[in-house]
């Protein structure tokens, strides 16, 4: 059974940084398309960044240049490094695993498995 468990969320001031991790069990992170999504109160869930089994990545325009997605195959973990955080980055962040649609379109339609989420709050 595939399980995804996020950690690393918290509260920071504008301009700060956070590092999210997603520990995977039941499969190898190097074998799946993986992604981070986020959802702010009252808004739809949106794709933030995705990565394939190699080195190809895709970022939402709003986070490009500030966020970095990566995999630690030895630890079977997906990571999202978030720098220069802004209040509009506030939301619940979810780890996801699925199909190549995650890399092509950062779409929820490409998700097969979700984590439970970790809260990120950025104050101005």
Q: What integer value in Å does the Rg equal?
A: 13 Å
Identify low-pLDDT runs: none
The percentage helix is under 10%
Number of strands: 11
Mean pLDDT: 94
Largest sheet: 7 strands, mixed
Calculate the terminal CA-CA distance, rounded to whole Å.
Answer: 40 Å
The sequence of SSEs as H and E is: EEEEEEEEEHEE
Q: Which geometry do the CA atoms define? A: globular
Number of continuous helical runs: 1
Per DSSP, what share of the residues sits in E-state strands of 2 or more residues?
A: over 45%
The chain-level structural class is mainly beta
SSE diagram, text form:
Elements: E1 3-7, E2 10-13, E3 18-25, E4 33-39, E5 46-51, E6 57-59, E7 67-72, E8 77-82, E9 91-98, H1 101-105, E10 111-114, E11 118-123
Notes on the structure:
By secondary structure, this protein is mainly beta. It has one helix at residues 101-105; strands spanning 3-7, 10-13, 18-25, 33-39, 46-51, 57-59, 67-72, 77-82, 91-98, 111-114, 118-123. The relative contact order is 0.31.
Q: How would you sum up this structure in a few lines?
A:
This protein has one helix spanning 101-105; strands spanning 3-7, 10-13, 18-25, 33-39, 46-51, 57-59, 67-72, 77-82, 91-98, 111-114, 118-123. With 124 residues, it is mainly β.
Please tag this protein with its features.
seven-stranded mixed beta sheet; four-stranded antiparallel beta sheet; mainly beta; 124 residues; single chain
